[in-house]
Amino acid sequence: MDDSESPNPMHTLRALIVNDCRVEQAILVGTLRALGVESLVANNAEEAQEIIYEGAVVDLIIMDKDMPVMDDVIHATRRLRAMGVTAKILGIITFYTREAVLDFLYAGADDVVLKPVRIKKLISIIEEINNGI
Amino acid sequence: MQGVASVTRAPFPPAHALTASFRLPCSRRRCSPQTLRFPPLEGYLDEQFHQLEELQDDVSPNFVEEVVTLFFRDSSRLIGTIEQALQKHPQDFHRLRTHVERLKGSSCSIGALKVKSECTLLGEYCDEGNMDRCLRSFQKVKREHAILRQKLEAYFQLLRQVGPTEKASGSGN
């Protein structure tokens, strides 16, 4: 790849938001839209995996750990990595515990943050994606 | 309809054009620092709310009010669920905590500082399995939720009166 140009100037980044809370979905979609990122939304880990199985290509996956079946999110993260998904995975949690963070990281998440997800964090992740980090 | 996915198109400059000093294009922003001139909201909302206001633009001029409306609709339902859960005997504190986490999560997302704080305490009491404290803490959650709703309703009413072109010009109160 020629380093003098962006990874793909015509490529609009896409994110998959895995979250069953409509408020948080709306905020993440709106925030990502403002940052020039298209969004897909899945209401649970199973839907997220279906979206990927069906061929959707995303650059970023934002996984909310605090959904009705919490372990599904961790298992889904592990399965997505096992499938070869290389998208950045950002885990988000509501209550901090060392265990929650480690569960996510060991499953293959690139980072874990407490809610709410700040714009600065998303900008930093988007820059990493653009720089191929 | 597939049902599980929705795609929104991004009208802003593509993400690859972002730099570390990214700011939303001024022509797209509607500066809305009105929370700084609305003393009743001070202490009730944190930086997250201001961040949401920064996202408002010509494409989504009512983004914040829409999100807030959605929040109160969902959180009212959650509060009802928690209230019912608190009446169960024996108490399932794990399940109760799950509901509290969901309420805290959405409160965090809109910057509802006091509601979030009370949810944190309620979550701790759930972990302790202390029913009395859970009940007292839950009343505080409900109170802060109701107060915030009133204040935000007043705030958005004020914004509608002021109009979309009004900008903060300093300290004037």
User: Which geometry of chain B do the CA atoms define?
Assistant: elongated
The fraction of residues in strands of chain A falls at 15-25%
The level 1 CATH classification of chain A is Alpha Beta
Count of β-strands of chain B: 0
Number of helices of chain B: 5
Low confidence ranges of chain B: 1-36, 166-173
Structural class of chain A: alpha/beta
Q: In whole angstroms, how far apart are the ends of chain B?
A: 51 Å
Q: For this structure, what is the CATH homologous superfamily of chain A?
A: Response regulator
Work out the largest interface and the residue count of each chain: A-B, 47 and 46 residues
Please tell me about this protein's structure.
The complex is a heterodimer of chains A (about 130) and B (about 170). Chain A has five helices and five strands, in the order E-H-E-H-E-H-E-H-E-H. Chain A is of the alpha/beta class and about 130 residues long. Chain A has one domain: Rossmann fold (3-Layer(aba) Sandwich). Chain A has a five-stranded parallel sheet with strand order 2-1-3-4-5, with helices on both faces. In chain A, strand 1, helix 1 and strand 2 (about 40) form a beta-alpha-beta unit. In chain A, helix 2 (about 45-55) runs parallel beside helix 3 (about 70-80) and helix 3 (about 70-80) packs parallel to helix 4. The longest helix of chain A has 13 residues, at about 20-35. Chain B has helices spanning about 45-55, 65-85, 95-110, 115-130, 130-160. Chain B is an all-alpha fold and about 170 residues long. Chain B is about 55% helix and about 0% strand. Classes of the chains: A alpha/beta (about 130), B mainly alpha (about 170). Chains A and B meet through helix 1, strand 2, helix 2 and helix 5 of A and helix 1, helix 2 and helix 3 of B. Chain B: This is Two-component phosphorelay intermediate involved in MAP kinase cascade regulation protein. Chain B: Keywords: Kinase, Transferase. Chain B: It comes from Dioscorea alata.
